[in-house]
Design brief:
- Helix content is 54%, strand content 7%.
- By secondary structure, the chain is mainly alpha-helical.
- The strands form two sheets. Strands 1-2-3 form a three-stranded parallel sheet, sandwiched between helices. The chain has a two-stranded parallel sheet with strand order 4-5.
- Helix 4 crosses helix 8.
- The chain is globular, with a radius of gyration of 22 Å.
- Bound molecules: adenosine monophosphate.
- Adenosine monophosphate binds next to helix 1.
Length: 339
C-alpha cells in the first residue's frame, strides 16, 4: 500500500498590532486560506514580535485574540490547519537563542526594516528590533516549513531566513532545514497601495489611507471617494498615473473581469469618469468584504471558541516544534536529557 504523500509545510503570522486592512488580507491571509488543503499550514499570531514596541498587557492580549478572530472570519479552519499564539510555543525562543549565534551584526543592521525603525522610533532601538529577522526565521523553521505566504514587504526577511538556514546546514554539515521561500498565489508578491497613493497600505498611516476588513460600507465609500486621481487621459491608450493605476489595481482584486475591462476601455478611449470608477470600486469592496464583516461580528460574540481553538492549536504547534528542537540540539551537540 502506498504511504500518504507528505504535504509541504507552510508557515506565516501576523503581528497583533491592531485592525487588519486589505494589505494584510490580500498579501497574507487570503493565501493562508487558499493553502489550507494543499499544504500543512501553521498560522500564528506573532505576539512576541509586538513586544518590540512595548504595548501594554491588556492591549496586547486583546489584539492577539482579535487576529485569531480575523483568521477565522477570513476562512481559516482549525480542522485543516494549525492556529496558535507564537508565545504559546516555548521552543520558539529556545531556537531563537541558538539562531542568534548564527546572525551577524552587520547583516542585521543592513535590513531595511531595522533602518526604518531606527529612523521612526529612535527612542526605542532595542535588541529585539535588530534580531527581528532571526525570530522570523525561527517562526518558519520551527516547523521545517518551505513556503512562507507574505506580502512584498516581507520578501527581504524571508531571503535572510534562507541565508540563516543555509548557514546552519553548512556549519553543521546537514541538510536538515529546507530553504524557505516567499509564496503567493498571484504572479508576484503583492504590495497593496495606500489610498493616498503614497507607498503601501499600512496601519501606521492615517486611518483614511487604509480599508479595514471591519470598516462599515459608509466608511469604505468615504475613503474610496477621497482617493486622489489625475485630470484624466488626454490621448487614447495613454499610460496611467500612479493614482489611477492604484484604483485599477484594487478593482482587479475585488471586481468581476468584465467590470475591469469596461473601465479599462473607458480609460483607453478617454471617456472614463473617475467618480463612476471609484463608486464601482467602493461597492465592489463592500460586497467583497460583506461575508468577512459578518463573520467578525458573529465570532466577536463567541470569544471562548476562539480561545479554545488557540489552545488546541498551541498543543499541536508545540508537538511539531519539540521534534525540531530535539533534532537541532542533537545536531549542534547539546545533550537531550529532556527527550
Ligand atoms: P504585519 O501586519 O506587518 O504583521 O503584516 C502581516 C502580513 O501582511 C505580512 O505578510 C505582510 O507582508 C502583509 N502585508 C502588510 N501590509 C501589506 C500591504 N500593504 N500589501 C501586501 N501585503 C501586506
Amino acid at each position: 500500500m502506498a504511504g500518504a504523500v507528505q504535504k509541504e509545510i507552510a508557515v506565516s503570522g501576523v503581528r497583533p498590532t491592531g485592525r487588519q486592512h486589505l494589505g494584510n488580507y490580500f498579501g497574507a491571509v487570503k493565501n493562508f486560506v487558499a493553502m489550507q488543503d494543499m499544504y500543512e499550514g501553521y498560522f500564528f499570531v506573532a505576539d512576541y514580535h509586538s513586544l518590540t514596541t512595548h504595548p501594554n498587557a491588556a492591549d496586547l492580549s486583546e489584539k492577539s485574540l482579535y487576529i485569531a478572530l480575523i483568521y477565522l472570519a477570513c476562512g481559516l479552519d482549525p480542522n485543516r490547519c494549525t492556529l496558535y499564539l507564537q508565545s504559546d510555543v516555548p521552543q520558539i525562543p529556545e531556537l531563537y537563542l541558538i539562531f542568534n549565534m548564527l546572525a551577524y551584526l552587520g547583516e542585521l543592521e543592513r535590513e531595511a526594516t531595522f533602518k526604518e525603525k531606527v529612523r521612526t522610533q529612535p527612542h526605542n532601538v532595542n535588541a529585539g528590533l535588530l534580531t527581528y529577522p532571526v525570530l522570523m526565521t525561527v517562526d518558519i523553521i520551527i516547523h521545517k516549513a518551505r513556503k512562507v505566504p507574505v506580502g512584498k514587504d516581507q520578501q527581504q526577511h524571508v531571503e535572510m531566513s534562507r541565508d540563516l538556514v543555509r548557514r546552519f546546514n553548512n556549519l553543521y554539515k546537514v541538510n536538515y532545514f529546507p530553504e524557505p521561500e516567499p509564496f503567493s498565489f498571484s504572479d508576484t508578491l503583492l504590495n497593496i497601495p495606500s489610498l493616498d497613493g503614497e507607498g503601501k497600505m499600512s496601519k501606521s498611516k492615517p486611518d483614511y489611507t487604509c480599508i479595514y476588513l471591519d470598516d462599515t460600507p459608509e466608511q469604505i465609500r468615504k475613503k474610496i471617494m477621497r482617493m486622489p486621481t489625475d485630470s484624466g487621459p488626454t490621448a487614447p491608450n495613454s499610460e496611467m498615473s500612479v493614482y489611477v493605476r492604484n484604483i485599477f489595481d484594487l478593482l482587479k482584486l475585488v471586481s468581476q473581469a468584465d467590470t475591469v475591462r469596461h473601465f479599462e476601455e473607458a480609460y483607453n478611449q478617454c471617456t472614463i469618469r473617475y467618480g463612476d470608477l471609484k463608486k464601482q470600486l467602493a461597492e465592489d469592496i463592500i460586497q467583497y468584504l460583506k461575508p468577512i464583516r459578518e463573520n467578525i461580528e458573529a465570532l466577536s460574540a463567541d470569544e471562548n471558541r476562539v480561545y479554545e481553538i488557540l489552545k488546541d492549536g498551541g498543543s499541536k504547534a508545540r508537538a511539531s516544534a519539540a521534534q525540531t528542537l530535539q533534532d537541532v540540539r542533537e545536531i549542534i551537540g547539546l545533550k537531550n536529557f529532556k527527550a
